[in-house]
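Supplementary Note 3. Input sequence used for the single-chain structure prediction.
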Amino acid sequence: MDAKPEPCLYCETGPGKGDQKAIIQLSRVGRRYPGGVAALAGLDLTIPRGEWLAIMGPSGSGKTTLLNLIGCLDRPTEGTILINDVDTTRFGERELTRFRRETIGLVFQQFHLVPYLTALENVMIAQYFHSMSDEGEALSALERVGLRDRARHLPSQLSGGEQQRVCVARALINHPKIVLADEPTGNLDEENERIVMGLFRELHRAGHTIVTVTHDMEVGKLADRRIELHHGVLTDLTLSQHDQLEAFDEVLEQLWKMRERHQEAIVTSMRVPDVVDNLATFRAMGEHGMLAVAEGRLLMTEKGEKRARDVVRRHRLAEKLFTETLELAERQVKGDVCQIEHILSSDVTDSICAFLGHPKVCPHGNAIPSGDCCNGAPATSSRNPA
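The predicted structure, written as discrete structure tokens, is reproduced below.
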């Protein structure tokens, strides 16, 4: 019998990152304060379920305002906010409060613990406002953050790191789908920062959606994705290393196809999927030795051309396999190819090529670049059983 997965420490849904459906979606969101000061302006942002997103930027850029809007602590003056498919901008104050305590866990830089209550009682307060308090469950929550033996201590008897861990336990006691943290390590020393961020990594592995505001680049690097705000505007979006390489591949594939059509790749007309600042991606590709810019045109280097060749070959071989061998529908083929083309190894690609009989063209009639496995092998336009 297969072993059952370990139960999640912090929620009832078990381990795993969840699906990629958006759990938070902001459309044209703005927040203006009296006097016309715009903290946020026309912001669009989608956060998939299970993602860890870091919001970065200088002081006064709108980071905390954005977090407060997502956390139902404030309202936008324009735009819509969907959380778990619910339009929170339509709620009154009472509905907003109820939705927040049932859906969102909050961790603050300043802790906001009640000074005359013990660590245990501070955790139980969150239970009380949600449904009913349960001392045993609250003790278990403190144990999960390594503080069961400090349960009867007042906040003044706890270190800064311990107080922050009490905040984490309090935020998680009602099993929220989303955890929001505003500078969670801002008041911590290096050792306590390591402990607290270890807790966030556990939450991430368990499938929680996490949004953190931070000035600390090392904390930001722990996230799947980083966005940067300046004066209330989303100015940059930094991808994880894996996603960045996928973005590179998308650009190289575009360039390869444009060359096939004898088109020039003009910097200002190129679009990088899922990236706000296209020029930053082109610069990064230049730093990796894949691209060069000449008179406003993008040119693939030898390294970039080799990678582009591999990407296009994987893509078109996968199309051939799915369409003619597995006989999948065109619409399904498109989605499946996009999911696997970045992860096929060269050995697997060569095996697919050999299985298909080293074809020259894809189902759409586009040339399939040959590989090392094609040397001396007869090429066909469809699979050759012989």
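The longest strand covers residues 22-33. The longest helix spans residues 302-325.
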